[in-house]
Amino acid sequence: MERLTIPDVRVDEHTTRKTIIDARAVREHAMDFYWRLKAYEDTELDPAVCADYKTFEDEAISKGVTFKRIIALMEADRAGRLVVLPCKVGDTLWVTGRDNVPREMELEAPDIRTVCTDEDNLCMSTCNRKPDGFCAYRLRNDGADIGKTVFLTREAAEAALEAMQNETR
To answer: 157 pLDDT exceeds 50?
Structure first.
């Protein structure tokens, strides 16, 4: 950012010489300052909002996220097309099968699909059998399956199965 004041001149570590300026330079400088301040005030933004925006902008730039991408994400969120899952591609998930055995699965990209190995051919009723011996379970697009039929840990899947068994008793 361009300075709005004229700095003093430091002669040595003990002496600072005040800068000598003429009235015309001060007037020109004051007018420049006036127009810059007017442009800021015309935004009608609070200084705290500007500081927050600057922090946001610095973080976006440091992570290589463009404003076009941020706007696309905001529009997708507004339209109900954005889901933030509690896991990432490559994470292991656990799915409760109809045989009451949790199946290990891996989240794949790009269409939010999980894949599990079904060694004992006890495939889940909601999966699509694949010719390579894997069975694919499609995670709901809104992520609502997580915590109900899809879990982040085996322990959580087992606890859900146990709770379901207790309800049927």
So the answer is: yes
Contacts of 10 (CB under 8 A, 6+ apart): 16, 17
Can you read off the two tokens belonging to residue 115? 């894949």
Alpha carbon of 78 to those of 53, 71, 86: distances in Å? 20, 10, 20
Q: Are 168 and 107 in contact (CB under 8 A)?
A: no
Locate 89 and state its tokens: 């591609």
The CA distance from 1 to 124, in Å, is 61
Per DSSP, the residues of 23-51 read: HHHHHHHHHHHHHHHHHHHHTT--HHHHH
Task: Output 156 or 148, whichever has higher pLDDT.
Answer: 156
What are the tens digits of pLDDT across the range 27-62? 888 888 899 989 988 988 898 998 999 999 999 999
Q: What is the mean pLDDT of the chain?
A: 75
Whole-number Cα distances in Å, 125 to 54, 57, 60, 97, 107: 51, 47, 43, 7, 19
pTM: 0.46
Phi, psi of 47 (to 5 degrees): -55, -35
Tell which residue, 48, 74, 75, 46, has the closest CA to residue 60.
74
